[in-house]
Structure formats: structure tokens, C-alpha cells
Amino acid sequence: MVATAQEQGHPVPGQIGLQPSVTPIMDSIHAFHDGPLLWTSVLIALLVLVLLIVVIVRFNAKANPKPSTTTHNTLVEIVWTVVPILILVIIAIPSFAVLTDQLTVPDGQRKYLGSNIFSFGDVEVPAAALTVKATGQQWYWDYEYVDQGKSISSSILSEEARQAQVPVQPRLLAVDYQLVVPVDTTVRMQITADPSGVIHAFAVPSFGIKIDAVPGKLNETWFNARKTGIYYGQCSELCGKDHAFMPIAVRVVTKEEFAAWMAAFEAGTVDDANATLPALS
Ligand SMILES: [Cu+2]
């Protein structure tokens, strides 16, 4: 049950750690977090703990009745300034590399980091084959398939509607119309917000993407999902009264299903298109 929920790309009760990855970018984030980042913070926490224990045991009033009057120690002060700087610089290198990956839409040539984060790139990603423009509205998302000239508005399902229509889909994340994309395909995401509106942010944890949706500005990121399913995210910029109620739901389907879906959409409506997909529940 829990495994199924996790595979569907949303948080589950009692979850520890990041959501499972289905893209090369999220692989990098997993590798970065579970590797250098987690171990660095665990070691620093342990070091501080040991130092505290030493101070408590050796320098309490009973064990050390006559305290030292030392006020400066040049060597120690240089070490405790330089070592944290070195640690931050070492952490910054893979961090900036992953950021660059997130913001560089594949051209079919460039290599990406993937889970082998210190390899300086060996993951091949095909050039973008689909462009979707997401526009943050107050308070829902509009998705436009730019090359096909087709648009969807995606709003949260009310709790009554969710229980009646798609009870297995998660509360506060289920939407009326999902963004439908093909599996194993690089999708260029263009992100903006209603010109007369506010700043939102488009984030889908399983894809490892999060980018601001700014009125009048077109931001760009990408994903290439390797597994079919429904992946949820939320607006991640405090945008106003319904900030918590404008979820993002991306349905990744097979390439054949997507072709049939898009053909039906181009010939008719999004309802016609969704009718070609297997039922959700
Ligand atoms: Cu928002």
C-alpha cells in the first residue's frame, strides 16, 4: 500500500527522506543529498556533540575550579574560519552543477550528472520533444502544449468531488485535469504567471524540479520521466489565500497513449482526450 502510494509520486504518512526519483535530475538530488550533504551534516553534528561533551566533563566548575583566562588563539581562530569555508566550497561544487543541469534544457549533446554526481556528467538525455508552458493563476495552473496550440486549466478537486470520482488519489493534491506527458521523453517546461497576478512556483519533487513562476518572465526547466504514473507537486511560493490549494498533477503515460491522447485533444476537447486513457481509480 505504502509502496504503491510512493510509486505514485506523492508524500506518504511516516515518510523519511526524499520522494522516489523518476528523472535524471532527481537522481542527482538523491545522490547529492544521501551522499556528501547528509554525511557532512552528520559528521559536523557529531563533532559538535563531542566538543560539547568534552566541555561539560572537563571544564565544569567542579572538575576545573580555576578557569583559564585565555581570550585569543590565532591558530584555532584561523582553523575554525577556514575549515567551514572549505566545507561550503566543496558542497557548492556539486550543488551548482545540479542547478546548472536543472536549468539547461537538453539539446541531445550535453551530458547530465544523474546519480553519478562526481563523474562530471555521463547521463545522456535526448533533446526536448515536447514543450509545455505552465502559467500560475490565482489559484490554479494553466498548461499549454505550445506546439500543438492546446491548453488545459487544472484546478484542485473539492474533497467531495475527489471522494466521488477518484478516491485513491491523494487529498489536497488531486486535480480535475492533469498535465499529461509521455514517458521517456524530454519535456521542456516554460513557467510563468498571469501578468496581472502574483508570483507562484512550479515544483514536482519526483522530477526534481522547482522554479519560480513570475509575471512577465518566462523561466525554463525540463524533465524526462522514466516511469508512468501520476506525480504530484504544489505551488511552492507563498502566493496568496489559496496558495495551499493549487496542486500540480502530472500524469506520465506511454508514448502510444500520449499520441492517442493528443490526437483526440487536437480533434476535440480535453475530455475527449482523457477518455482515451485508462480510468484513474
Ligand atoms: Cu501559487
UniProtKB/TrEMBL annotation:
This protein's UniProt keywords: Copper, Electron transport, Membrane, Metal-binding, Respiratory chain, Translocase, Transmembrane, Transmembrane helix, Transport
Reaction catalyzed: 4 Fe(II)-[cytochrome c] + O2 + 8 H(+)(in) = 4 Fe(III)-[cytochrome c] + 2 H2O + 4 H(+)(out)
EC number(s) on file: 7.1.1.9
Highest taxon of source: Bacteria
Main subcellular localisation: membrane
Membrane-protein topology: Multi-pass membrane protein
UniProt keyword Metal-binding, yes or no: yes
Domain Cytochrome oxidase subunit II copper A binding: 127-264
Family annotation (InterPro entries): CcO_II, CcO_II-like_C, Copper_CuA, Cupredoxin, Cyt_c_oxidase_su2, Cyt_c_oxidase_su2_TM_dom, Cyt_c_oxidase_su2_TM_sf
Membership in a protein family: Belongs to the cytochrome c oxidase subunit 2 family.
Subcellular compartments: Cell membrane; Membrane
Top EC class, one word: translocase
UniProt source species: Devosia insulae DS-56
Gene Ontology terms describing biological process: ATP synthesis coupled electron transport
Molecular functions (GO terms): copper ion binding; cytochrome-c oxidase activity; oxidoreductase activity
CC annotations in GO: plasma membrane
Protein name per UniProt: Cytochrome c oxidase subunit 2
Cytochrome oxidase subunit II transmembrane region profile domain ranges (all copies): 10-106
Protein function: Subunits I and II form the functional core of the enzyme complex. Electrons originating in cytochrome c are transferred via heme a and Cu(A) to the binuclear center formed by heme a3 and Cu(B).
